[in-house]
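Prompt: Have a read of the protein record below and flag anything odd:
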Amino acid sequence: MPWQPIARSRSYELVVDQIEEQILAGRLRVGDRLPGERDLASHLQVSRAAVREAIRSLEAQGVVRSAVGSGKDAGTVVSALPSEALTRLLRLHVALANFPIPDVVAARVMLERSSAALAADNAGEGDLAAMRVALDGMDSRDVDRDRFNELDTAFHVAIAEAGRNRLVADMTIAIRDSMRRPILRALEELGEDWKRVADQLRADHHAIFAAIESGDGALAAERVDQHIRSAHIALPFAGDTT
């Protein structure tokens, strides 16, 4: 179906709808370039401002990317950046407490069990090396809370990437990254006791890594399950009613 003129009311949302329809129907694919702003506004019989607002919305969702100028890379191109979009969306909603912490923990358990099992089957030496770098950093006795938290995130991301399932990895990464700040705040609330909790987390991480390195997917899944649940108990999350 060609581009169709649309009513002026809610024109920005309807521009988004039409672009999404072109993607869902397979007429627009990753790498395809949208018509220029002037041409698209003419096709749809809306203002260029409505087109710009629609493009900004789709960029925020990771569906398109835009570049100004007149060269070969200029214009708006259909892209696929689900990790960035999912991470942004989940981070904001977790911050707004739209997702209770226990719900996020349950989702992490389901996804990261799968990620760990897949990593045990598919991790290459580069993947294992990325996990080791994170583990070595967390093992440093002079690591502070902020750096520890960054490395903790990197460890879980490395496991997700090692699984070789792009959708599972993107969802896992998005949810784990959305917990980055809540976890840091929880570590700060622990005071000096954070070092004891950090030791527990280190031990859990090394056990998970050992299972992945040995190729034991069932054990890796069980250990990451126990790790997430025990960390939830050990860390004082604000607003957590469990």
